[in-house]
Design goal:
The chain is of the alpha/beta class. The protein is about 35% helix and about 25% strand. The strands form 2 sheets. A 6-stranded mixed β-sheet has the order 6-7-8-3-9-10, sandwiched between helices. Strand 7, helix 6 (about 190-205) and strand 8 (about 210-215) form a beta-alpha-beta unit. Bound molecules: adenosine-5'-diphosphate and magnesium ion.
């Protein structure tokens, strides 16, 4: 289809950036249990630099656990995960560094309630990245501008709408200059009229070449911005295909069944 076969990047679709050849996030044979529950089963997944992978699948299929495992919020029992050629460290300084390379945006915005919007965005860069406060502030204001909430910089999270808070959460993650951004159902907790303002920010990021792993039920976003759709069911990656192909011609019974319920 539209994928490039050679080393030249394919002409991207309107919402998509070009994908480079080098792998940035590589999972090989990852297995994880919660007690007796085998929640990630032999997960093999390679995400290339600049690629946007949308992860879909039924509730309970392991999508959140996959994100949390990539970010080391969860441990895993076997297999390997590398970010930009580095194995996931167990703990300590190296882990803090790695977490800084992996930005994460959750369904609940998780902003610090007692800090201003600006402080929410400057905290990580000054504490973890050791940026000077003035530099961190300037960069934070640029990011807040980019996500359209710069005029709210001195307010507290509760004074903002859900859509605005989620855009701040995206700015906060970007302030760490991550190599990859993980989004776990970033619009599921939002009122319908706020969903698009968040998806628009994400589409812009995708177009700018950010590497992204996005768990979402927003199929319009998947069609517009994803280079690839990964379908999970029962802890396994069941299908991985370009969006056009996946939506028009899903291969497995489980994917057909899932799409039949949501489309
Ligand atoms: P999804 O995000 O696709 O809905 P999750 O990754 O949240 O799925 O969950 C996958 C499975 O793991 C579910 O059966 C869920 O109940 C279980 N699970 C998730 N987190 C925990 C936990 N901390 N302890 C025990 N079981 C969990
Ligand atoms: Mg989930």
């Amino acid at each position: 289809m539209s994928a490039s076969n050679g080393s030249q990047a394919a002409e991207p679709a309107p919402g998509r950036g070009a994908v480079r050849d080098d792998p940035l996030v590589v999972l090989k044979g990852v297995n994880k249990h919660f007690g007796a529950l085998h929640v990630l089963r032999d997960i093999d997944l390679t995400v290339h630099r600049g690629e946007v992978v949308v992860v879909i699948g039924p509730s309970g299929s392991g999508k959140s656990t996959l994100c949390r495992t990539i970010n080391r919020l969860e441990t895993f029992e076997s297999g390997s995960i590398e970010i930009d050629g580095q194995a996931l460290p167990e703990e300590g300084k190296a882990l803090a560094q790695l977490r800084a390379d992996v930005g994460m945006v959750f369904q609940s915005f998780n902003l610090f309630a007692h800090k201003t919007i600006l402080e929410n965005v400057t905290l990580g860069p000054t504490k973890v990245r050791r940026q000077r406060p003035a530099e961190a502030r300037q960069r934070a204001m640029e990011l807040l501008e980019r996500v359209g909430v710069a005029h709210q910089a001195e307010k507290y999270p509760a004074q903002l709408s859900g859509g605005q808070q989620q855009r701040v959460a995206i700015a906060r993650a970007l302030a760490m200059e991550p190599k990859v951004m993980l989004f776990d159902e970033p619009t599921s907790a939002l009122d319908p009229e706020m969903i698009n303002e968040v998806l628009d920010v994400m589409t812009d990021l995708a177009r700018d070449g950010m590497t992204m792993i996005v768990v979402t039920h927003e199929m319009g976003f998947a069609r517009r911005a994803a280079n690839r759709v990964v379908f999970m069911s029962d802890g396994q990656i069941v299908e991985s295909a370009e969006p056009e192909q996946f939506f028009s011609n899903p291969q497995s019974a489980r994917a057909k069944d899932f799409l039949g319920k949501i489309l």
